[in-house]
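Suppose you are handed a protein chain with no further information: no name, no annotation, nothing but its sequence. What can you learn? This example shows the usual starting point.
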Amino acid sequence: MYSFTAPVVMDASTPTPVGSEPRPPLVAPGRQPVLVVMGVSGSGKSTVAALLAGQLGWDFVEGDDLHPEANVNKMASGTPLTDDDRWPWLDTVSSWILGHTTADVPGIITCSALKKKYRDVLREQNVIFVHLVGSKELLGARMSARLDHYMPASLLDSQLDTLEPLDPDERGILIDAARPPAEEAARIVTMLGLLPAAGSSALSAGKPGRSAAQMPVTTAVIHPVVEAVTRRIIERSAQTRARYLARIDAAAEQGPTRGRLGCANLAHGFAATGQQDKAALRRFVKPNIGIVSSYNDVLSAHQPFAAYPAILKDAVRKAGGIAQVAGGVPAMCDGITQGRDGMQLSLFSRDLIAMATGVALAHDLFDGALLLGVCDKIVPGLVIGALAFGHLPAILVPTGPMSSGIPNKEKSRIRQLYAEGLAGREQLLEAETASYHSAGTCTFYGTANSNQMLMEVMGLHLPGASFVSPDSPLREALTAAAASQVVALTELKDQYTPIGRVVDEKSIVNGVVALLATGGSTNHTLHLPAIAAAAGIQLTWQDFADLSEVVPLLVRIYPNGPADINHFHAAGGTAFLIGQLLDAGLLHPDVRTVAGAGLDAYRREPVLDGTALSYRPGPTESLDTDVLRPASAPFAPNGGLRILDGNLGSAVIKVAAVATEHHVIQAPAVVFDDQHVFLAAFDAGQLDRDLVAVIRYQGPSANGMPELHKLTPALGILQDRGYQVALVTDGRMSGASGKIPAAIHLTPEAAAGGPIGRIRDGDLVRLDATAGTLDVLIDDDVFAAREITGAALDDASWSGTGRELFSVFRRQVGPADRGASVITNTPEGVL
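A reasonable first move is to predict its three-dimensional structure. Written in C-alpha cells, the prediction is:
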C-alpha cells in the first residue's frame, strides 16, 4: 500500500502553503502514518480532514469526540480547558493514534491548535502534523462570521491564543487556512505522497491504484435542442428562479438556525439525545442532520427503512456530525389502492408529503437532511418539501428493488385470463404473490423505479445507489456513505452543496432526458414540473415534447419489454446509461451533485472490497442489448413519452410499450364518467368493437386524478381480439402503462370545463402518436356550441375512505400540465 521511506522533515518556518513538488511518503518504516490535522474553530480542519479521509479511505475521527464528558460539559459552558483537563483527553488521543499505526487502515484525527508541549507527547507515535494556519485577524474574522452566535467569546480567544507554529524538528506541513479546503487537501496528498488504503471507501476513489485521471470525462458538445430547451427554461424562469435563490441564500447566511433558538426551545430539541450529542448540539460546531423517513410495513419498498435510522446515525457520528429523526411522512402503496377509493388520495398525498417534510425540517435544528423514500408520490413529495429548505444539503436514500419474481409476461398473461374469466382468483393471487414477494421496490419500470433513475441522473442519489437490492451488504455500505456525505456537504464543513443549487435548470432537463431515454413513468410529466416549480423553475409539457424529438430510447424494461429493473442493473445500469447520454451530448455534465461537481462521477459503479465501499468505472458496453443499448444503436430514435395536442386539449402518451401499428387509432367514442361503469360494460360484453374509451371526470379537481390501471387488462383483451382500441382520459394510468395507446392527463379536465366534457358516444376520435395530435373529428363550431355533460361528485358524495379530509385540495389544485399541485397553483405556477 505504501512505499515506506525514512521520515522526511519539512521546513515549517513560515505559515505559507506548501510548494508544488511532490515528496516521498512521510512515514516511518513498518508502521502506518496517522495525520493530526490541527486548527482553531473556523480554520476548516474538519473539512480538510474529511476530504482527506474521503480521498484516501483512511479512518477519521474528530478529536473533540474523544473528550471525556466533563470536558464536553465544560466546553459547552464556554469555559476554556486547563492542562489538567487536557492530559486525560490526550491519553485517549494517543491510544487512538497508536492503534492506527499498527492497523490495516491508517488514521486521520482532528485537534484544536495544539501547543507544542502536547504535540511532543504525540510526535513519538509516527504522526504527521497538518497545521491549518493563517493570520489571527483572518481566523478571528472567519470565526466571527460563522460562529460568533454559537461559541462564547472566551473560548474563541483561548483558541486563537494557541497558535504556535511547527518547529523544524516536527514532521508535518503548514497549510493556508484561507485557501479552498479541497485544493489544500489535494495538496497534502501530493506533498506527502499519500495513497488510498486498500478497498478505499471514498466517493472520489476508484479501484485501489486507479488514478482519478483515468475516469472518462465528458467532452461532447451539448445537443443544440437540449441547449435550446435549457436556455428557454432559464429565460422563462429568470425572475421566479432569482426570487427562490434569494430566499435560500438569505436563509444560508443566517447559519444553523438552532443558534438563535431560545434556551427552552433548544433544550426541547435535544432533550432525548445522548449526553455526547446533547453537548455537541449545545456547542453548535457539529452539523446536525435531520432524517425524514417514509417507513411503514405496508409498502414493500419502504419496509427496509425500519433499520435505517441506526445505520445513518452511526455513520453521521463517525463523519463528525449528529443525526436525529426529524419526522415521518405518509407513504401510500398504489398497488394496494388501485381501483379503490383510496387511490383518489394518491396524487394529493405527494403535496401532503411535501408539507410533512416541511414540518419535520421546520424545527430549526438541522444543517442537512437525509430523505428516506422510494415510491410513487413519496420521492417527489420529499424533494418538494426539501426545496422549501433549499439552503440545506439533502441526499435521497433508497432501499433498492426486490429480487426478480415470475416473468412479467407471465404475470400479464394471467391477469388477462382472469379478466376474461378464464382463470380463477386463486390462480391470480398466486401469480401476484410470486411477482411481489419480498421487501424492496416492485421490479417493473413504473413510477417507483423511474423515481430512482431520475434522482440519480439529477445528482440527488450517490452514484450507483438506485438499484442495489435491500439485502445486499453493498446496500448498507451505500446507506452509510450517504450519511457520511451529507455531513461533508453542510455549511459547517465547507463543501457546502444545498439542494436548492443542485436542483437547477440543467438538472431538471437532465431528469427529463433520463425519463425519455428510459421510457419512464408518465407520472413524471406531473412530478417534474411540480419539483421544478418548488425551485422557482417553470417547466412545460412543450419542453418534454421538444426533448422527446431528439432523445433516443435506450432502455426496454417491463412494461416496455420483458426484462425487469434487475436485468437493467445487470446489463450496465445507470453508469452505462449516463455515460452514453453524456457522450451523446444529451445530458448537461456541468452540474452540482451530492457526489461533487459534475455528472461524470455517475459513470462509476459502487462495489465492495471486503467490507469497504469503493468505486470503479462503469461498463463501456452493454451486457445485454435486448435491455440496454448504446446511443448509437437505440431501440427508437425518439423518446418513450410524447405530448399530444388538438381540439381536446393537451395530453401525455407513453409510446415505449405501444406497438407501432397502434400509434394511430381512429374510432368512435364510448363515454364513461366512472371506470367501474366501463368495467361493468366490458363484463357484459357491450364493448366488442373498435372504440376510443373516454373516461371523464378523473382529473385533479374532480376526484384527485386516480390511476386507472384496472382498465388495462380489459382494454388489452379488446386489442388482442383485433379491435382498434385507445383510451382518452383526464385521469392517470399507472406509471407502468402498457400496450394500449392511452392519451392521459388530458387538460383542461372535464371538471374545469375542458372539451372532453363535450364528447358524446359515437363521436369519431383520432389519436395520432406519430403526429402528436388528439382530436374529435367534428366541426369546431359545432363542437364548441355543445353543452358540457356529466359532472364531478360534490363534496357530500366525494367522501369515505378519508376523502372528505382532502376536499380543500380538490378546490385548490392546479392543472395537470403544471404539476397538478396544491402547493404551486399560483399565477406563475411556482412557489
